[in-house]
Amino acid sequence: MKSAVMDSPRSRKEELGQFLTSTPVADFMASLFWALPKKVRLLDAGAGAGALTAAFVSRCCAQREGVRVIEATLYELDVEILEALVETMHECEQLCAAAGIRFLFTIHSVDFIQETSARLSGGLFGSLTPSYDVAIANPPYRKISTDSPERSALRWVGVETSNLYAGFIALIHRLLLPGGQLVAITPRSFCNGPYFRAFREDFLTHLELRRLHVFESRQAAFRDDGVLQENIIFHAAKGGRQPAELLISSSSGEPDGSITETDFAFTDIVHPHDAEKFIHIPSTAGHSAAKETLAGLGSSLASLGVTVSTGRVVDFRLKGALRQEPERGTVPLLYPCHFNGGTVHWPIASGRKPNAILDNAETRPWLVPSGVYLLTKRFTSKEERRRLVACLFDPETVPAPWVGFENHLNYFHAGGRGLERDLAVGLFAFLNSTVVDQYFRRFSGHTQVNATDLRTLAYPDCGTLRAMGRGLQALDVAQAEIDQLVDQHLHGC
Ligand SMILES: C[S@@+](CC[C@H](N)C(=O)[O-])C[C@H]1O[C@@H](n2cnc3c(N)ncnc32)[C@H](O)[C@@H]1O
Hints:
It is a single chain. The protein has two domains: 4-283, Vaccinia Virus protein VP39 (Rossmann fold, 3-Layer(aba) Sandwich), CATH 3.40.50; 302-491, Adenine-n6-DNA-methyltransferase TaqI, Chain A, domain 2 (Alpha-Beta Complex). Helices cover 30% and strands 22% of the residues. It has helices at 10-16, 23-31, 51-63, 82-99, 112-120, 149-156, 164-174, 197-206, 266-269, 285-295, 421-431, 434-443, 451-456, 462-471, 479-491; strands spanning 39-45, 69-75, 102-108, 132-137, 176-187, 207-215, 231-238, 245-251, 259-265, 307-310, 322-323, 330-334, 339-340, 343-344, 356-358, 368-369, 373-377, 390-393, 402-405, 409-413. The strands form four sheets. The chain has a nine-stranded mixed β-sheet, with helices on both faces. The radius of gyration is 26 Å and the shape is elongated. The N and C termini lie far apart (59 Å). It binds S-adenosylmethionine. S-adenosylmethionine binds at residues 16-21, 46-48, 51-52, 75-78, 81, 111-113, 138, 140.
């Protein structure tokens, strides 16, 4: 198979979201389909050089499961890869001919989003009805802004999403016949977070999940292209209800790596009362144990009288008010770089970020009154051991009447004011514990921690948190010590 895109410049590949599926991953995806009809109408949207259709065809030819005809419809926008795609389709024809299968293909060299949205909405090009038995996809990944042509087109069919891949999936399932099957590899980002809320609702309403597979290594699935994305593969069918149980599997992503499989109650994957419809993916024993632990906790953040918000100082909007060093008329400005082993180290001399912000009528709405606050990073680096990194802001070490928390932080507060100290330290221990990190990893495949994610967690009650807070002697303690303390208070051991 030709690999024209491998040579194309990186920026062009990024613009097209062009990251090709390796043969072992494509074969694995093709193996996930359940029973197929005699005549399969296959959709491959964003076909690239045709790796996914080729894997599907190989499966049908090898398994001899009664498929007699494959009619493949492929959409690919990039004219430079079309020659490679046509060549792959001819290889598929030959493979099918040898296996006694009739293979027909149609390539649409058009924009799948524009064309399909217009046709599904009965617009310019006439109407389109669901007509596929099977779809296989590795859709392009790219953010689409609110005023982009893709967003407008998707709105014609009632789809609201900020990433191209989710738009592809939403359109693909609209083109499936009832019972039609979809296997796709996508970023895991749609499983949590507020931006994909509408997409999750649409997805879970129209598709019955049958299998989720997660790659343990962040880079494994697209290592050739050096893409840093945690990806999942899912198998789903159009319509129906969600199953009672769902098979979750995981692998390292290495070609010969072993696959671990576990059945979970579907209610463990999407909690029935979760308005956000997070999709949890427990892939290790630690994830399951964490679920058990958090299931035993009865408090919500709101019931504790605590709120978590995103830092209000958006630095580029208040550029004129920022100061590298504290001076008369300024108050402390805190960034993640001020985190220092559980507490805040401020100011940082010769740091890259400003340490202070003017306190005046313009900036005051973005500041908070001094007090004890718990801070968490919104973005952790890959190297960081935990996704959740919390530190305590203590006015005794950073004295000032007001303080600014920059937008890359989340801060826990009580109605806009500081927290009671023991409660804040208890929350510090809880959020920095391994068990909460493991729980978090069940639903989040990326290094971003949204305030919504923190709001949806279950928390110990006030008394337990305060006791944990009193039990923690210092904040720069080893992970094992935090885990032991949290364990002791949650399990009494
Ligand atoms: C992630 S790649 C996957 C390619 C192939 N399916 C594979 O798995 O190797 C996505 C493909 O979608 C194509 N693409 C991007 N935007 C598109 C659009 N709006 N309509 C059709 N194809 C598009 C890209 O050129 C790219 O080849």
